[in-house]
Amino acid sequence: MIRLVCISLALAALSACGFRPLYGDAGFNGVVDGQNITIAEIPGRSGYTLRRNLMEELAVGLPGLDKSARLTVTLDERLVRAALLPDGGVSRSFLGATGDYVLDTPDGAVSGSVSVEVPYAATATPYTDVSAQIDVSTRAMSELARQIADDLRIQVQNLK
To answer: What is the CATH number of the domain that holds 27?
Structure first.
């Protein structure tokens, strides 16, 4: 009986502190809380990362946008190997990414395209090269999301 009372008190205290479950409805469905901006799914690992970064960037909202909107992004990635060594190896690589976006609002559509190119040092072993590619993709998607959000802030202001 004492155990039940202690558990009840602990749960009551936990709910009063603002605790939210990790897998709850904390904006993980693609809708930016308080702004009604829905971000469509983007295929692939990089697309998932870009979408998550866009959700973070747009969490503060877009100035002048008070109605619901839907953001659709098309992602194109390319890997460029450069700086060949005398033995035919690669010492430098670049990950280029382009995001074409369309924000549909009741007042009209806003569209644009942004590109980033992130360099990274290639390695001799295949396993570390794959790890480096994943890391550079994460960095590129973060930069791409920032640029898309900046473009949207400017363009939504001009929409009115």
So the answer is: 3.30.160.150
